[in-house]
Amino acid sequence: MWYFAWILGLPLAALIAVANAMWLEML
């Protein structure tokens, strides 16, 4: 079920990207 991994992985990757951007702005 590769699509299930995509459904979970894409929002997780987006969340990591947002958290990384926020972290860089706080530095």
From TrEMBL:
A Pfam entry, by short name: YbgT_YccB
Superkingdom in the source lineage: Bacteria
Name recorded for this polypeptide: Cytochrome bd-I oxidase subunit CydX
Gene: cydX
